[in-house]
Design a protein that fits this description.
Part of the ABC transporter complex HmuTUV involved in hemin import. Responsible for energy coupling to the transport system. The chain is an alpha/beta fold. Helix content is 31%, strand content 28%. β7, α6 and β8 form a beta-alpha-beta unit. Bound molecules: adenosine-5'-triphosphate.
Length: 233
C-alpha cells in the first residue's frame, strides 16, 4: 500500500516538479552530488518553504492536516546539527511530541544509548551526540513517514551500523523512511535508491542496479575501481 504520494512537488530553481510514491515499510535512499537537490526534495515533501504540489500520506493531504495530525503523519530531520538552546537533551526529544510522554522518551533514550547525556544541555554535546538526540526527536512520535537528511553523518562506525539497524526495524514495523546519504557503501541496506541531480530524480531503482549504471557514473563523475570508486577522467 502506498504510504506517501507526492504529486508535482517543486521548489522554483531548486527542484523540478516531482512525483513520488513510497510504500509503507520501504527504506529509500536519496543519493546524488552536492547541490543536486536531496535536501530540497526532503523539504518539499515535508512541506517546508511553501513548496508547490501536493503530498498525501495514507490519502491525507499534509497541507490540510492540523499540526498535531501532521506530526503523526511525518517528521523531518534536518542535516544541520546546530542547536543553540541550552536545554536538556531529553527536553529536545520531547519537542517531537504534542503531549509529553516520558515513557516513550525513555524508550528512545535507551534505544539510542543516551542515558549519560539525557540531562545535559544539548548545546554542550558533541556533534555526533547531538545527531542522536535530534534523530530521537524525529522518531519519538512514531510518524508514518520519516524524512531524514544525512542522519548517518558525523557518526562513528558503531553508530552508523546501529542506526542503520534502527532504520531497518522502523521500516519493518511499517513506517516509510527516506534517507539522504553520501556514503555509497551504505546503499546495500536500502530497498530502493533515488539518484537526484540538477534538481531532478534521475533514477529510481534497486541500489545495486543504480550503482552499476552508466548514468550513475556520469552524474557522480566516478567509476568503479579496486572494489571502490575512483574519479572518472
Ligand atoms: N535556501 C536556498 N536558497 C536558494 N537556493 C538554495 C537554497 N538551499 C539550497 N539551494 C540551492 O538548491 C540546489 C539544491 O540544493 P540541496 O541543498 O537540495 O542539494 P543537496 O543534494 O541536498 O546537496 P548536499 O549534498 O550538498 O547537501 C543547490 O544548487 C543549492 O545551491
Amino acid at each position: 500500500m502506498t504510504s506517501l504520494a507526492a504529486r508535482q512537488v517543486a521548489i522554483p530553481g531548486r527542484l523540478e516538479p516531482t512525483n513520488l510514491d513510497v510504500r509503507a515499510g520501504e527504506l529509500v535512499a536519496l543519493v546524488g552530488p552536492n547541490g543536486g537537490g536531496k535536501t530540497s526534495l526532503l523539504r518539499a515533501l515535508a512541506r517546508i518553504e511553501g513548496a508547490a504540489g501536493v503530498v498525501a500520506i495514507d490519502g491525507e493531504d499534509l497541507d490540510q492536516a492540523p499540526i498535531a495530525r501532521r506530526r503523526r503523519l511525518l517528521s523531518f530531520l534536518p542535516a544541520s546539527r546546530d542547536v543553540t538552546w541550552p536545554i536538556a537533551a531529553r527536553d529536545v526529544i520531547a519537542l517531537g511530541l504534542d503531549r509529553r510522554d516520558d515513557c516513550r522518551i525513555d524508550e528512545l533514550i535507551s534505544l539510542l544509548e543516551l542515558e549519560r547525556m539525557a540531562d545535559r544541555p544539548v548545546n554542550r554535546l558533541s556533534t555526533g551526540e547531538r545527531a542522536r538526540i535530534l534523530l530521537a526527536r524525529a522518531m519519538v512520535g512514531n510518524p508514518q513517514v520519516l524524512l531524514l537528511d544525512e542522519p548517518l553523518s558525523n557518526l562513528d562506525p558503531y553508530w552508523v551500523i546501529h542506526i542503520i539497524e534502527v532504520l531497518e526495524n522502523i521500516a519493518r514495523s511499517g513506517q516509510s523512511v527516506l534517507v539522504a546519504v553520501h556514503d555509497l557503501a551504505q546503499l546495500s541496506h536500502f530497498s530502493r535508491a533515488l539518484l537526484i541531480a540538477d534538481g531532478k530524480v534521475q533514477m529510481d531503482e534497486a541500489p545495486a542496479s543504480l550503482t552499476a549504471s552508466e548514468r550513475f557514473e556520469e552524474v557522480f563523475r566516478i567509476r568503479p575501481a579496486n572494489g571502490g570508486w575512483t574519479i572518472k577522467r
